[in-house]
UniProtKB/TrEMBL annotation:
GO terms for cellular component: photosystem II. This is NAD(P)-binding domain-containing protein. It comes from the Bacteria. Residues 10-196 form the NAD(P)-binding domain. Keywords: Photosynthesis, Photosystem II. GO terms for biological process: photosynthesis.
Length: 287
């Protein structure tokens, strides 16, 4: 049987790293693409090959696709409040992934699996979601076989809530009643692995538990053993700050716009994940 040859972009992220482990356990050849050399060192010994290049730079990834059947992109700017750069979501998610797509077409890569995001009517207009949906459309138009995996939200994006819980004060935009079912990084990685060789065009992925935003915050308090206090901040405060920061810090502006919308709207997808958020929070609290 021919070994599947895969380029995995974003392998140092929470989902990408778990996917790398899954694919290598299956015997796949996996070449990883990472922007920062220091981050890429943790992949040595696990990945078949490690390439260090910034996909956001034109021409930087041209050689990375040589001999590859499938590209899986987990590449994208995260939604953590720990911001290391100012580039907007468009400048990372769309620009970098478009360079990968163009290189894939030139090299004859047959399939593109993209880690996208589940859109909802209350937040699909945000620049964060717009970047993902724009990239989906570019992949659709390319003629390459594709699958889009769309998680509602990934547990790793909620890690800041443990920091708030330890301080005894949780900030929740809006009234805290919007529902969501975020999903474990391993569950998302398993969904991606499921469609590497073929599968549905779009695969929504939700976690096992549907909770309100307040319930998520209380779960974080439980994990650290504190009762804590939840403070509801009007979403308009986040939106106004987003507008003020647009020309100063594009990433933070995009993030605040997204947070204001997604935390005050339902974000629920079919439950494919099985790993509970409570266990994730408890593990973080013990770390």
């Amino acid at each position: 049987m021919t070994t599947q040859r895969i380029l995995l972009a974003g392998a140092t992220g929470a989902v990408g790293f778990e996917l790398l482990r899954l694919l290598r356990a299956r015997g796949c050849f996996v070449r990883t693409l990472s922007r920062v050399e220091g981050n890429a060192t943790r992949l040595l010994g696990l990945a078949s090959e490690v390439v260090v290049a910034d996909a956001a730079e034109p021409g930087a990834v041209s050689g990375a696709l040589a001999g590859v059947d499938t590209i899986v992109s987990c590449l994208g700017a995260n939604v953590s409040t720990t911001l290391r750069e100012r580039r907007s979501y468009h400048d990372v998610d769309v620009v970098a992934n478009t360079h990968l797509l163009e290189a894939a077409k030139r090299s004859g890569t047959r399939r593109f699996v993209y880690l996208s995001a589940q859109p909802g009517p209350g937040y699909a207009h945000t620049r964060y979601l717009a970047a993902h949906l724009q990239m989906e459309e570019r992949i659709r138009a390319s003629g390459i076989s594709f699958s889009f995996v769309r998680p509602t939200g990934i547990y790793s994006a909620l890690s800041d809530m443990i920091r708030m819980a330890r301080a005894g004060l949780g900030t929740v935009p809006g009234d805290g009643l919007a529902r969501t079912n975020p999903v474990h990084p391993v569950d998302v990685a398993e969904a991606l692995a499921e469609v590497v060789a073929g599968g549905p065009d779009v695969l929504p992925v939700g976690g096992p538990d549907v909770m309100t935003r307040d319930e998520v915050m209380r779960l974080a308090f439980d994990a650290v053993g504190k009762k804590g206090l939840i403070v509801h901040v009007p979403a308009g405060v986040f939106r106004a700050t987003s507008v003020l920061l647009a020309g100063i810090h594009p990433r933070l502006s995009d993030l605040l716009e997204f947070v204001a919308a997604v935390t005050t709207s339902d974000s629920v997808a079919p439950a494919r994940g099985t790993r509970p958020l409570r266990a994730w929070f408890e593990a973080l609290a013990r770390a």
